[in-house]
Amino acid sequence: GNDMKKKLIACDLGTGGIKASLFDDAGESHAEVFRQYETLFPHEGWAEQRPMDWWNAVCGAVRQLLSDSQTGADEIACIALSGHSLVAVPLDAHGRLLRDQVPIWFDTRARDQAERFFRVFSYEDWYRTTGNGDPPETYTLFKLLWEKEHHPQDFSAVHMILGSKDYINYKLTGRMCTDPSYASGFGVFNLEKWDYDDLVLRSAGIDRALFPPIVPSDSVIGAVTEEASDLCGLLPGTPVACGAVDNTCMSLGSTGLQEGRAYASVGSSAWIAVTSRQPIIDISARPFVFAHVRKGYYTSAVSIFSAGNSFRWIRDTLYKDSGNNVDTYDIMNREAAASPAGSNGVLFNPTLAGGSAQEPSPRLKGGFMGLTLANTRGDLTRAAMEGVALALRSTLDILRTQTDLSGEILLTGGCSKSALWRRIFCDVFNIPTVKTSVDQNAASLGAAALAANSVGLWDGYQMIPYIHHEEEKLEPDPVSAAQYEKLLGVYQSWTGSLADLADRMSSPGL
Length: 510
Hints:
Helix content: 25-40%
Number of helices: 17
Radius of gyration: 23 Å
Number of strands: 22
Strand content: 15-25%
Oligomer: single chain
Structural class: alpha+beta
Largest sheet: 7 strands, mixed
């Protein structure tokens, strides 16, 4: 009977692959399976993936998840997806893929199209309407304009454009739709009206009908078809929830729907996001905003492009003698811990992958400052950890101008595994920080929560904070915090100079 159907499957469709997780109706995760897929880089600035790779990976991962966990397909109450953002999957009127490979979020080929659009529509008005603070050319609208210009035949055959998780939902159920959070990354969504914006669409010359109908993130959009069932191992008739974009799922799984609650995700890149009733729009700092899973809530974020990436660069460059094993990070942490707060006068700028919208120039490059003959490798390593924290703190202050960050910041992502780094984040942010059991499962938990709500196993999101088992709570150390406060001013003025120099270096002839 229906008592059986208490388990949920969450699929987190990411840049590197898909993670399928099995949750119970209390929000605890019991098993997970990861399947990789590749990203293709056919030209400079292009980044593409194959939607069929996502689908095959989802089917393989779900089958393996059921078999590894010895779960019957008849125990699954619902499946929901979290999906990577800003993707454009074009389907024809028969639901067939018009492109084997589609541009993903960090594809930047559409620069010219964006530039031309902003000659007829003010950038400031567009940003204020959409909250789309990342580089404009990465948003779906401009990817479509590129397609229209370069492949007019294909473009005229497009019936509808879907996001990443929406395409999987279509393969599962045969229904084409999206949710407000994913739609808010299309470049045509009005955050206030909670719907597509006709003025933006008209100015771009793109038909509104190309974008999928918007339904709530936590609504059931359909059921697994016979055909999909044969491939993915779920029973025909299994409910499929609409799901949400990864930023929103991660926000939901990190802090629930609580006003002013923030989390920092510190992985290869890093961002800080806050949940609030008002989108945080700031034309000079350009936070990027997504609609949340309930109308009237938003998740606004600021980012740096290189956090763990910069630390990996330090490992590969300064720790070659340690061999390329995992323990190298232990050695790095040990050496960094022997250096005091402030790294004996060494500062590091972590912008090794270019500047984000919240930094002074996209051409900003990284660097070390303050080196003397007395400095050790440990000083440089600690400076790298402090540099990432100082760069994030600078973006955090942008959010603070507009919202009261309540209480504490949850730390998630790979870099939060380091106890030393957690301490540095706490002191540099000068806010209590928390690490919990959920950690890298936040997006999956968010998707599972949407699934649970869509089939009535849950009513709302108030239990999410209770699913987090606190593993560590740190209070800022007043002495270090005061020292970092002074360093922050130096870091920011140095970063401004670095940005000016980078702009000069990039001028022709250098």
